[in-house]
Structure formats: structure tokens, C-alpha cells
Design brief:
Blueprint (H helix, E strand, L loop, with lengths): L2 E5 L3 H18 L7 E5 L1 H10 L5 H20 L16
Parallel strand pairs: 1-2
Helix pairs in contact: 2-3
């Protein structure tokens, strides 16, 4: 298990995500040291903002994030991806 976080606009947000990953790892992954992979995504967000109609941006951003995560998982030999979102949750 490894952790993947997209840096979109805030170093503080990324740091908080790291702290959460660190806590999860210390409490649930005894004896295993996961990687924390940080992907700089500001250019992708800017490109999506420039090219995609406002009403589709969130969906396109998530789709691109899934594609990137899949590529990273394949490269690392991961067998599964677990995303941290609730299917029933509305996006803000």
C-alpha cells in the first residue's frame, strides 16, 4: 500500500494529507513503510480550466486523476487502486 496525493494549489493541504497518511500507516500498517507519492497537478488544472467548459471541469479533473493514478499503479506493480471518496458524496 502506498499513498498518492495531488498537489493542486496548497502546500498546507499536501502537508495535511501527508500527516493523515502517516497516521494511517502508523496505526494500520505495522511493519510496512508505504511511500507517499506527491504529484504536482497545477499545470493539469490550469489546462483543464483553459480547455474544458465549466460544468464539466470537475468530472474531467477526476478522470485525469484516475488515469494518472492508474499509470503510477501500473509502474509500481500495484494490483489495486483504492480511492478516498464516497460514491454517494456530492462534490463541492
Amino acid at each position: 500500500m502506498n499513498f498518492l496525493h495531488y498537489y493542486v494549489d496548497s502546500a498546507v493541504s499536501s502537508y495535511c494529507a501527508f500527516l493523515v497518511a502517516e497516521k494511517l500507516a502508523s496505526e494500520w500498517l505495522y511493519g510496512y513503510r508505504p511511500s507517499f507519492i506527491l504529484v504536482e497537478f497545477t499545470d493539469a488544472v490550469a489546462e483543464i480550466t483553459r480547455r474544458v467548459e465549466w460544468s464539466y471541469r470537475q468530472v474531467v479533473l477526476r478522470a485525469v486523476m484516475y488515469i494518472v493514478a492508474e499509470k503510477i499503479a501500473e509502474k509500481m506493480g500495484c494490483e489495486a487502486l483504492i480511492i478516498g471518496e464516497s460514491i454517494g458524496q456530492a462534490s463541492s
